[in-house]
Every structure is written in structure tokens, then in C-alpha cells.
Amino acid sequence: MLREKLHIFGILGCVLCVVGSTTIVLHAPQERQIESVTEVWGLATEPAFMCYVGVVLAIVALLVFKFVPLYGQTHVMVYIGVCSLVGSISVMSVKALGIALKLTFSGTNQLIYPQTWAFSMVVISCIITQMNYLNKALDTFNTAVVSPIYYTMFTSLTILASVIMFKGLGPAKSDTNRDRDVWRRHHLLGNISTSQNKGHG
């Protein structure tokens, strides 16, 4: 439809993304049963996850106000970094909002809790930010380069946020497999970035 042709690195990136997704799904641990949105709020407001959110916001602010004006048009990692970091928080909020809606439709109204609306505001803010900088990245750089890098960073940071927020739920073996998946994705990101630099050279 878009009449775009993938070069060898684009094809390799797509294959590795599919393999990585399959690996994560096959080794995904069982999740605990959530009884209310307040339980998710309790997990989201614990010190470890709050520290993660603070670090993410600090890095995003640094990227937006310092690096975007200087390097946004020349380095794809700047725009993608903002999208991926904000996206990791948005996924956790979307998950909380999904749990709230599921419980509400099951007969346990979660809309009476202010936490549900707080998660909704976070989701809206994060999605607007993500779409803004993702569109800038797609307008500036080749889609074949943006897509695999964004997929890799977004997935890696989402897994990290989930492990922190939910305390790495599941058996130790599952945690090991999940950490191994994060390493694989960062390795993939490094390979893609290297190939991009060679292409510009």
C-alpha cells in the first residue's frame, strides 16, 4: 500500500521482532488476580515504581527541552527515546484502566474511585505525547528504520516497567527468561543502530 521496499536490514529487523515477540509470549509468567483498581494504584505508588516514573520524566524532559532542538532532525534515537519512555508508563496505565473497566462491566463499579480517572488522565497525556513525537520521527526518518528501533525500545522499557511495578511476578525461572528477553532486545537495538550508522556513512 505504501510502496516502500525493505532493504536487508529492514527484513532482518522484522524477523527478529517477530521472533522476540514469540519468545516473550511463550515464556510469559502467570499474573496475579487484581480485585480492584485501588490495588493497582497501590502497586503504582510504591517507591520502586515511583522512582522509575521520576527517572523517566527527568529523561523525557531532558530529551524534549535540550536534545530535540539540537539533534532531533539528525538522530532518530531522540524522538524514539521520548516515545518509548512515555510509552512504558502509558502501557501500565492502560493496563490499570483495562482492569477497572473489566471489573466495572463484571458488576463491580470502579468508576467511583478517583484512581480510575487518574489513570485515564495519564493514558491520555502519554498517548498524545507518544503520537506527537512518533509522527515527528516518521516525518524525519525512514519508516524502515523508525519501526524496529521503536518496537525494540518500547517493548524493552515496557517489560522493565512491568517488572518493577508488579515486582517480577512469577517463578524465578520466568524472571530469568524475561531478563534474557530484555537483553536480546537491547542487543537487537544495538545491531539496528549500528547498521543505520553504516548506512549514513
Automatic annotation (TrEMBL):
Pfam families: Mg_trans_NIPA. It is found in: Cell membrane; Early endosome; Membrane. It is a multi-pass membrane protein. Keywords: Cell membrane, Endosome, Ion transport, Magnesium, Membrane, Transmembrane, Transmembrane helix, Transport. GO terms for molecular function: magnesium ion transmembrane transporter activity. The chain crosses the membrane at residues 6-28, 49-71, 77-105, 117-134, 149-170. It comes from the Eukaryota. InterPro entries: Mg_trans_NIPA (IPR008521). One of its GO terms (cellular component) is plasma membrane. Belongs to the NIPA (TC 2.A.7) family. Homodimer. Acts as a Mg(2+) transporter. Can also transport other divalent cations such as Fe(2+), Sr(2+), Ba(2+), Mn(2+) and Co(2+) but to a much less extent than Mg(2+). This is Probable magnesium transporter. It comes from Aegilops tauschii subsp. strangulata. The lineage of its organism: Eukaryota, Viridiplantae, Streptophyta, Embryophyta, Tracheophyta.
